[in-house]
Every structure is written in structure tokens, then in C-alpha cells.
Amino acid sequence: MLQQIMTAPGKIEFQEISIPKLNENEVLVKIMRIGVCGSDIHVYRGEHPYTQYPITQGHEVSGRIEKIGSKVQGFKLNDKVTIQPQVVCGRCYQCTHGNYHICDDLKVMGFQTTGAASEFFAVNSEKLIKLPSEMTYEEGAMIEPCAVGVHAVLKGGDVSDFNVLVLGAGPIGNLISQTAKALGARSVMITDLSNYRLGIAEEVGIDFTINPLKQTLSEEIFKSFGPHKADLIIECVGVNETIETAIDIARKGTDIIVVGVFADNPSINLGYIQDRELRLIGNLMYQTKDYIKAIELIQSKKINLKPLMSTHFP
């Protein structure tokens, strides 16, 4: 079978390897769709802070079960599945206290360990999540970024009747915004410097789309949310300017969820955070429950994925 391998930034090769043999707890998945997201582009450009080469990518995937190990239960041949790409130790404090997604030895398929960019992929059945039979493989490959959105929004607690501000209208920011609305937010504002991305946000029904180069964000927040501003702020860019913006415009006592991956160390005013009792909350990836919720939201048509699928490759 063919397997993709990135030998160095910007250099992708394909190699012929044997179809993996299964152990008793593994499943062989025929890979049908792989999503290419911003993180993959960062790896391609050599800009991802936690990736070494050579690496086989592929962490947003869907497929069907081709073969099943002797001790695997709950799955059958031809089931549609997606794969949780976290590889965890199962022994550290976080793993034994319900937070395996921040395992002390966390590795992620496609970044620190082999991803699914191959014709077939052998994976422990514990990493599989069954997809509804009516779900397309394209939708199935988008469950992973949707789960990121679910996990991020739920970090802010119950967002029912909240005014939510999302900084960054890339795919993750878009999905976070859609998730916030799906989970009961009163209104959602999203910002970006790209009118193209803001147009997609409008297409999927985000209430307010703001380009800070053309509009004054503080004025737009007052106009749309009123004097009490945003109840929750979610940063989805990962640059110094946006985290500074989040802190500057936050109402006192506000939670700021940090989703963006920072390539450089940001400089922020901790005195301002202390004085205003702001809370910066880190956010990483997801758990199985976030995948299940993402599937539910997509099935119920509360999240619109199609505008986010910019290009299809055969």
C-alpha cells in the first residue's frame, strides 16, 4: 500500500509499504477521507512547534473497517469510523484522573507519531468512534475539528444566553462559533482580518462578523452586546496581538479561553489580569465525549460543514 511521508518541510514523498498486520486489539481501517487543516499547513511549512521530521500526517480522518482483531468488540466489518489521534500513556496523573487529553507523554498522530495518510491504517479499537451510516466520509473527517470546538466552548461552562466573542475566523474559530450557537449562546461575534473567512462565517449564520482593520472592535461590541460586553471570549489565532486584544476588551471577571497555538512566546500584562480578575484558560484538543457531541450537532444540522470544505482532492 502507499503511505505519505513528509521527509522535511515542504517535501512530501510516497512509499510502498506492507499492509499492517493486526494485534488482537487493533482494527484495520481503509482510509477514505483525510482533512488538511491549518496545523497540517504549519507542519508543511516547518512552522509547527511540536513536530519533527520525517512524519506521516493525517489526523482528521474517516474510513471503513476492513479487518478486526480477535479481541475487538463493538465494531463490525464496513462500519464507518473516525479516529481519535491522541496517543497517551494511561499511567500519568492526568490519564488516571480523567484528563488523558493532556497526558504527560501525549503524542498526536500526524505530528509526533505516525498519522493515517496511507491506504490502510492499523489502530487500537479504543481510538475508534463509530459514525452514523448516513454520515458522509467528508463529514466524518471533520468530526475532529468539530470536537475541538465542542471542547473549547464547554471550557466556558454553560453558554446558554451568553454573548460570545471569538477572535479568529479560521476553520476552528468558525466551528467554535457555530458550536456556541448550537449550545444556546444568545449571540456570537467573530473577528478576522480576512473578508473571505468572515464571508464564510456569515454563510453559516454567525450573528456579527467584524474586520478590525475596518471597524473599531470595542464600538462594535458595545453596539452588538451592550455595555456588559462579551460573557465569554475565545482566542483562536495564537498571536500576541489577539491575546492582548482579548485582555484589553474583556469585561472584569471574564473567562478567556485560549485555543490558538502560539509559535512565539506572547507578552501580556499580568497586572491587568490580576487587577480585573480575568481568567485565562488553556484548551487542548478533546475527549471522546466531545466527539460524540460533535457527531450529534452535525447530525442535527446545527453545524454546517460544507462551506469549510474549500477544496476536494480525488
From TrEMBL:
Keywords: Metal-binding, Oxidoreductase, Zinc
Example GO molecular function: zinc ion binding
InterPro entries xref list: ADH-like_C, ADH-like_N, ADH_Zn_CS, GroES-like_sf, NAD(P)-bd_dom_sf
Pfam family membership, one: ADH_zinc_N
Keyword Plastid applies: no
Cofactor: Zn(2+)
Alcohol dehydrogenase-like C-terminal domain location: 171-299
PROSITE patterns tied to this protein: ADH_ZINC (PS00059)
Alcohol dehydrogenase-like N-terminal domain segment(s): 24-132
Entry's family note: Belongs to the zinc-containing alcohol dehydrogenase family.
Protein name, UniProt field: Enoyl reductase (ER) domain-containing protein
Source organism (scientific name): marine sediment metagenome
